## 1
Amino acid sequence: MKGEIVLEARDLSMHFGGVHAVDQVNFALWDNELRCLIGPNGAGKSTFFKCLTGQHVPTHGDVVIRDVHVAGREPHQIARLGVGIKTQVPNVFDGLSVEENIWLSARRWHKAQRAKVLTQETLERLALGDIRSAIVGTLAHGQRQWVELGMVVAAEPWLVLLDEPAAGMTHEEVETTAELIREVNKTATMIVVEHDMQFIRMISNKVTVFHEGRILIEDTMDVISADERVREVYLGHKSQ
Amino acid sequence: MTWNRENKWRAGLVVLGVIFLFAAPNVFQLFTIINMTTAIAFAILALSLGLIWGYGGILCFGQTAFFGLGAYAYTVAAINFGGSTWAILVAILVAMLVAAVLGYFVFYGRVSDVYLAVITLTATLILYSLMRRTSGPEYKIGKSLLGGFNGITSPPLNMPWDTSQVLFPEHVFYVAMAALILAYILCSWLVQTQFGRVSVAIRENELRAELLGYDIRFYKMALFTVGGGIAAVAGVVFCNGVGRVTPDVFNLYNTALTIIWVIVGGRGTLIGPVLGAILLFYLTSSLGTQAVLNNNLVLGAILILFVLLVPKGIVPSFTEWWDNRRALRTSRRKEVRMRRRRSRLAEANGEAGDER
């Protein structure tokens, strides 16, 4: 891999009582990479994700984003480093309009004038222009996911962390989302947590597989889908 | 700030307020005017809670703490300074400082909504018992005795920096109404600034606001502090209207009443709480003159009725009804136009058929 490491997890552990949700994970992300995290339910990928975004304070270990130690920091401090985050459950401002949602993201990092332009551009980019004044809470699930993606994109982050961006979307929506992610990847380094294998095939070159709080394997999608252990983890033990 | 429909409404309300400000003393008797001053004080208090609860999502169950602190700080400072000009400023600053300190612990400690309500309520009740126990001559701040249960007589307002010109009750009314209008304008402006919009966003979804990079603790504390300052202005107006300040400003009844005003008037609007406060003030004072129904019973019934039947409050329900009516009308007009066009078309076709 060329470039420098922009995000690193060192010996990262997250314990809930006796449950080791994340167990001594060492993880490195290179500049401009688009990395997918996969794994069965309870593999610890979402917990790992939450440690990266500051929603959890890790029990042990550290997360380093561009030489800044961020473990235990507030989510807004991590976002302030230029990190765009989308959570698993759509986290949007339900009572506000689509435009206001996007604007709130753009305005955080840019002056009023530029924020207006960015909001406009993002609405067009995500084809949300027709529903710009709609209240987000009244929209369909897929559209709300898009509004959240729009909020992430509007801030022009250099590092983007997405937790299940295609969850609950129709097949067409998934394809458009994949396209958008590839486009965003041109200017930003990304981590995408996903379930949908087809979706991962559309976007990713390198995949990290989580299993029981640890990293099982890290390779290209072709190698991973051929790997015996991964199949076992996903489908349970193979029948005779 | 854009000149949208909402702001036109707000501007209209301000104009009405100004007209009322100048007209009322010429229309009503002095007793009514003095009574109104108290109602206006409550309206400002309701506005302050409407701002932080309706827009910031901060359910402060003890907004009267800042109201009472404002009244006490004004009175004590005015006695010590021998004039009201700086005392008003002191009142606002004291309340804002207390709000900022309390807000710091509550918001930076990430206390959840319910506990926030409990803590603010408790703070108010502590002030209540504290001030009731200050009756001895040893309890004094500078020249001002605190007076315990009986409270302190509040020095009347004077013209700015001119202690020889003391304001009469009808002048205090002007000041009160002007304070209400200014507070309303301030709040209307504030909720449209970036700060206000982010505060609303935090009310909608704290986590999302944080993930966008907003320090929600700071925003909440700041909004809470502004609310405390406005409540203090209400306190200053109140003790000038009544002529004294007693520990009762902190009692449970007033604290609960503030919440009821906002619920009845409507959260998420600014004029709602103002109207709610004035409406209920006159309702309770008219109930006070009769002996058939218990005052508190009626208030309780109103609260329950509103929570069950008009949960959004008067103003939001009204605007909703108004918008629906307008939408219905325009759609009906459209339909009529379509029908006319269709019949005209049919006629034209019929004529064409005849010719053939």
## 2
Amino acid sequence: MKKWRVLLLASFIIIAGGCIRKSILDDINILTVIGYDYIDKNSIKGTALIPVYETEKILNETFTTTSIASQDIFEELQHESSDPIAQGSLEMVLYGEELAKKGVIPIIDTLQRDSRIGTRLYLAVVNGTANELLKGKYGTRGNGIYLSNLIRQNIEQRDIPKTNLHKFLYAYYSDGRDPFLPYIQKEKDKVKIVGIALFDGDRMVHYIKESDMFYFKILVDRYTEGTYTIQMADNQYAAVKSIVTDRNFFFSGSKERPNITVDIEFRGILHEYSQRKYNKKIKQKIETTFEKEIVKETSKLIKHLQSHQIDPIGFGEEAKSRYRNFSYKAFYENYPTLDIKINAKVTIIDSGIVD
Amino acid sequence: MQAISERFKISPFLVFFAVSSMQIGIGVLGYQRIIAKSAGYDAWISVILAGIAGHITLWMMYSILQKTNGSIVETNQQIFGKLIGNILNLLLALYYTALVVGVLRTYIEVVQVWMFPDLKIEVLAAAFMLLTIYIVLGGFRAVVGVCFFSIILPSYLILTFVYTFEYANFRMLLPIFDHSILDILKATKDMTLTILGFETLFIYYPFIKNAGQSKKWAHLAILSTTLIYVVITVITFAFFSEKQLQKHIWATLSMWKIVEMPFIERFEYLGIATWTIVILPNICLAAWCASRIVKQVVNIQQKYALIVLSVICTVAVCLIKTRENVNLLNDMLGYVGFYFLYGFVPFIFILLHIIHKVRKKG
């Protein structure tokens, strides 16, 4: 009896252990970035970036191919590569601007369908073509790491709102929100973030300029660790480092046509002030100037979004959670003319180690 | 019917593990979109309702079992007589066998889709059934041992949901009760497959020492699984937007895609591998129940019943080829389970009550 059981267990281990194809790390090409560009109605160009690790340095190898569907591009790329291409650690996907304007969902579909691809993946729109951007050489650790670090640290410490594949799909499938993606551009041996690409459904319709990104982020996300310079009336300026921002929405009136108030709270520390003297009065002056600026700029930004009929901030979702039997259709019919009021409250907690 | 020897029995508190490990299985990997289909983001209320319904059914089951002082096999024989009672018992055995097939095939489907597309169904099915035979041959106590570990070992997985908080938008659960009562009840019905499993108690009840004491542990088990389900439901609803959720067949697994750890790129692989331990007791306990019924009804050794059933299960698993068929099987299991829990159990409960009343008078 005992022998029997050992035999059973042994056969289980043997059978279960030997039946799957293996992928050994040295024998595969790890895809880190893939870029897509629009060619014509029936085809897109895919550029895949694969880091080749050599002693001392990392080379960027790119493969380019054209096809009609994005999954096909993965297959086509295999034809050019001597080792099988693994997609499991894809870190970033780039879309050429023209393609983004035509719609990205047909291409994103493979990303969300493929079980091997994580949803922390960054997406970005390229001003120009993705192919050209990927052909460049940036940083010392390979283009893949350069690009994903560029986005990551700008999300964590600067003015790109939190974004990744999951966030994009969340917004795309939500009725009360529109997606957005970082908008990047090649500049010689660097890549620069030039704004935020705004989408209506899956088509890019517009973008927010770099100077407005701060205001956009405080509207959609919590903003931490960024520095913002305030131009004061008397030709002085003050730099304020943010600790945390928060925003709250208040709705009143009918559900088809609510009056919306957004309270923005900003808490930060003074980083730099151009005049020698700093006291309570000046502190208040900086605060009120900054408050006014936030109200002015964010109102302008929201007006702008309203005029384009897009809602990346998610007013629709916020409204839905506050009204029963809510209809997105009725809400968005009135959306461009809704009255959206901004209140800002800036608090400077301290002024560094000197007064 | 000979009494079961003390040394084959389990302590009352182990019923907690037997009940909860049987409930948590393949349903929890993807029930969210099914319940959200009818009740939208109010469906977490349905989860609570399903839990309450489970408690009531469990209470009835204990009442039935205490009255018969044996398993459901004897109850059926007592109420309906030898012939009809045994037909019912064999149907019950069929139900538990179907449970084995459903759980195993769905898990293989998950492994195929998420990890190894080129995996052969036959190989994994055979390996799993061999392991099941091995465990069940060890007796009921060994099966409960597996149940115990299937709760303890994978319990760390609940911590991984912390990663989703960063992206969770709990506002979307508001306003509460935005759907009609009927929609919410329909979602409660759809929860059946996920909450199913504690009806195995019907068979292993005679194997519990001081069975009366185990009642509180069984209720505690249902309470904990309901609680876990509510938490997972709320997190899922906060994490996905409504239409996005409808796209994800295994929402719980899809949520693991956001987990990022320095030492592992894709956490799902670890999660799915761990899930082997979670579904193992489902298969073992159900196979044990099925073979136990066959033993009692046909009067053969449980060993032979088990081996025959395992072969049937392996063949059945291999015959189910496509996603549609897997879904159909699961829908059917949920359907049958629904009428079993909320139709058959109350029916027997009332019938037994009346019979006892009448006998007392007579």
